[in-house]
Each structure stands twice: as C-alpha cells, then as structure tokens.
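Hi V.,

Quick status before I head out on leave. The structure for the redesign project is tokenized and pasted below; the design run finished overnight.
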C-alpha cells in the first residue's frame, strides 16, 4: 500500500492529546492542506482560529459565558465540564465558514467545504505524527456562538479540532468491510 493511503487508513481520534503541538512551520503545511479542500466556485469560505496557551483560557471563559447565558437548566457540574473542555488538548482549531451569498453555492455547500478542510487538517496532522479530534457539542453549529468568538454573523462555527500528540492507550481502529456500505450499479 502507498504512504498516502496508509496515512488515511491510520487516521484516528486518540483518547488523549498532549504536548508537543505542531510547530508554526508544520502548521503552515497543515493549513495549505486544509485550503486544498474542494470549494464550489472558489468561494474560499474556510477560516481557522488557532488557539493555544492563554488562548485556551480565553476560550474556556467564552464557553462558560455562553453556557451561562444560553444553556437551559445548567447544572454546576455541566458548567464546570464546559469550562474545562478547552483544556483537553494543547491546541484547538476552531473551524469557521464565512458564508457568502452566491447564486449557485448555498450555505450548506460552503460548510461542506470547511468540513472537507477539517478532514484534510486531520490527515495532514496524522502524516506529521500528530492527531486531532473533531468535536461540536453546544458551542458549534449554533448561530449565537459567533459573537462570543468575536466573529461576524456570516461566520459560522462548524466545529473544533482538538489537536496534539497522541498519548495514552492507543485505540484499536475498527476493521470495516466496504461491502456493507457500497452498492454497485454496473
Ligand atoms: C461533525 C462531527 C462532530 C463530532 N462531534 C463530536 C463531539 O462533539 N464529541 C465527540 O466525542 N466526538 C465527536 N465526533 C466524533 C469524533 O471526532 C471521532 O470521529 C469519533 O470519536 C470516532 O473516532 P475515530 O475518528 O478514531 O474513528 C464528531 C465527528 C464529526 C465528524
């Protein structure tokens, strides 16, 4: 099997993510990979917020404020969980789609492009010996979160990639049989 396919087949979301994080030079390559995602009519809809160090504390405060102001029946325990969420990895990349009005490219296609970019990021990280976990939860796919992150209303948060070096017990990658998922018309 070639290296490209090996990289795709070995990608997984580790249970734990630790330091080190990718260097700036490595992240430059990761973002170049992200920006090779398919993009209908070259709308260039994807934006990324790279959050590390004190940025994670800032994100934690934002998640806390957002939860306090928007989550119904919020328990003390849930609030603590939301506040702690950003510290599950040493780097987070917020995935943002900047929606532009276009006669042929609806909003959902622009978000699909950012989703494809996200997978390219995960694959690029895997190829460099790092990993990411894609998460959504209460703070994504929710219009109100944009203003908490200082984004404009046409910039939608489609998810977060928690990034770092895989640590802890390695996950077993499940064996999938394509026959269970593929129908052939011949
Ligand atoms: C759009 C999207 C949103 C996700 N949101 C979450 C999430 O909020 N929490 C979570 O634990 N996993 C979430 N996942 C799943 C993980 O990223 C991961 O794919 C899953 O745990 C399977 O592990 P694997 O990637 O090793 O196969 C999400 C995946 C996708 C594609």
């Amino acid at each position: 099997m070639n290296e490209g396919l090996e990289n795709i087949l070995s990608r997984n979301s580790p249970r734990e993510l630790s330091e080190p994080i990718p260097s700036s030079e490595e992240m430059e390559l990761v973002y170049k990979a992200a920006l090779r995602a398919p993009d209908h009519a070259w709308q260039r809809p994807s934006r990324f917020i790279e959050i590390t160090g004190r940025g994670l504390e800032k994100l934690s405060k934002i998640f806390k404020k957002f939860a306090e102001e928007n989550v119904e029946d919020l328990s003390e325990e849930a609030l603590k969980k939301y506040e702690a969420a950003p510290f599950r990895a040493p780097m987070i990349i917020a995935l943002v789609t900047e929606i532009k009005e276009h006669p042929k490219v609806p909003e959902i296609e622009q978000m699909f492009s950012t989703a494809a970019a996200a997978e390219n990021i995960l694959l690029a990280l895997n190829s460099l010996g790092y990993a990411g976990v894609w998460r959504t939860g209460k703070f994504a796919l929710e219009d109100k979160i944009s203003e908490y992150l200082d984004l404009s209303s046409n910039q939608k948060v489609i998810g977060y990639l928690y990034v770092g070096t895989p640590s802890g017990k390695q996950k077993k990658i499940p064996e999938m049989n394509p026959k269970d998922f593929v129908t052939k018309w011949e």
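Above is the designed sequence. The radius of gyration is 18 Å.

G. will cover questions while I'm gone.

Best,
W.
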